[in-house]
Amino acid sequence: MAMSLLRGSAAPAPQCPGTQAAPPSRRETLAIVSTGSRLCGVAAYTAALKRQLADAFHVTVFNLDQYLMRSPDRRVRKFADRQVMEICRAIRHSDVVNLQLEHGTLGRRGSDIFRRFCWLTDAAPRLSVTFHTLPLPPIFDTVAFLKAVTTVNINAAARLERDRRRARLLSRGFARQLRQLQHRKQVSAIVHNRRDRRDVHYLYGVAHVFDHPLSYCSAAELAAVRAAASRRRFPLLDRLPADAALVGVFGFLNEYKGIGTAIDALHYLPDNYHLLIFGGVHPQDIRARQARHPYISSLFDQAYMDTTLYQKMGALATAGTPRLVIDSDAGLRRLMGNHPRELSSRVHFMGALDEEDFLAGMAICDTVVFPYLEVGQSSSGPISQALELGCRIVASRTHAFLEFAEYHRDSIEFFDIGNHLELAARLSARRQFPPREGLPEFNVETNKATYILANGRLDAAPHGWKLAETRAAPDFVAEQRR
Q1: What residues make up the domain containing 395?
Q2: Mean pLDDT of 421-426
Q3: Do 210 and 223 belong to one domain?
């Protein structure tokens, strides 16, 4: 274990806690504040974390009601504040509090999120904050703002300024709160990659920072998943041929998931390759009287579903272009039938499944693909679960996945974001890395060790929890102190 970080070292070194960590002499009480929504990845991780820490702490999970937290209605927001205050009164009696922080779980408005964050962190006797997303100080888009002003686009200018204030509050405001708290009590942070660890240490000014990738399942749990996984578990796959090569993508349907890249790659793969899409539209994206979600429609277009060759040719027609004349029934059938590149028989929407089926779906796939776009994510639950299961993983070269691969060398095959030709070539090529046996080096045991370290009693500095030991970026800290 690299204990230098516990003393506010100037240059944080990578940490790999040992697979065993000594629990406190007395089983302390740990309160975890999180969301209990089964539709949220943070909730799934919290449930796994509770299992991992059950023999080290007396764990109690306090769930943030997402209906209350995310409501825009003023009256409902007051009920949300009341629930947070009730949680604050309860966690004061715990030995240590861990806040699983995904900012949207605390509210929609920046002011609501910040206020509730301050209440919870103030109430904690000892505090650890797990950052699932790390907001950094914003860089204001001056060019876009001036363009909006000069074109008298008041709404656009106001939106840019509103977004800047929100981002500033959720980065610098959070940093200021944590720095002030560590003067009078123990504060630690847990992040999911080494880039975020440096940002929390230097930019946020937090002295005690721990990093570990998301980890979910024990060896026994993984063995149970593999034993129960088979194609017969999924009726939608009954008609697939025995030699079908299954390529899976996982998670709620959203543009940043890059599923269109996987569909484009399918055009360049043999006919026995099938794409399985595990996931559905997020409930928050369901709109009244919407015939079909726009992102699903875009996937249909990329797969040439519900599209004839005549329609595609018509879409390319311009004014003055000679009209197409069909002089035979055979030509009419060819033009009005399914498009020759139509993929409806090779793209399978598997639906939004529960966690057991979700993991079983990964286990049956020949390759699990993560074709995400770059959106500033810190981590991804599905790629962590796929790696634990020993799946063959092909992922786009986003910052989050590159950081994840630093913990799991020789485990992930990469392709450039949006490059469907490279993706197709990788899928049709032999596996780059051999299958792993057993748990990865960073697993539920090392994750447990990290949480025991972060939430246990750290050695106090001679002058208490003063920030003097922390070498944070001077310009950022100086600005906050003014």
Answers
A1: 219-307+342-428
A2: 98
A3: no
Are residues 263 and 182 part of one domain? no
What is the band of 321 on the pLDDT scale with cuts at 50, 70, 90? Answer: low
Task: Give residue-wise pLDDT tens across range 1-30.
Answer: 333 333 333 345 445 454 445 555 678 999
Q: What per-residue confidence (pLDDT) applies to 162?
A: 77
Distance CA 416, CA 424 (A): 12
What is the per-residue pLDDT for 304? 85
CATH number of domain containing 95: 3.40.50
Q: Give the model confidence (pLDDT) of 338-389 as tens digits.
A: 566 788 899 999 999 999 999 999 999 999 999 999 988 899 999 999 999 9
Are residues 211 and 229 both part of a single domain?
Answer: no
CATH number at residue 391: 3.40.50.2000
Do 301 and 397 lie in a common domain?
yes
H, E, C per residue of the chain: CCHHHHHCCCCCCCCCCCCCCCCCCCCCEEEEEEECCCCCHHHHHHHHHHHHCCCCCEEEEEEECHHHHCCCCHHHHHHHHHHHHHHHHHHCCCCEEEEEECHHHHCCCHHHHHHHHHHHHHHCCCEEEEECCCCCCCCCCHHHHHHHHHCCCHHHHHHHHHHHHHHHHHHHHHHHHHHHHCCCCCEEEEECCHHHHHHHHHCCCCCEEEECCCCCCCHHHHHHHHHHCCHHHCHHHCCCCCCCEEEEEECCCCHHHCHHHHHHHHCCCCCCEEEEEEECCCHHHCCCCCCCCHHHHHHHHHCCCCCEHHHHHHHHCCCCCCCCCCCCHHHHHHHHCECCCCCCCCEEEEECCCHHHHHHHHHHCCEEEECCCCCCCCCCHHHHHHHHCCCCEEEECCHHHHHHHHHCCCCEEEECCCCHHHHHHHHHCCCCCCCCCCCCCCCHHHHHHHHHHHHCCCCCCCCCCCHHHCCCCHHHHHHHHC
> Residues 89-120: pLDDT tens digits?
999 999 999 999 998 899 999 999 999 999 99
Handedness of CA 211, 256, 434, 238 (dihedral sign): positive
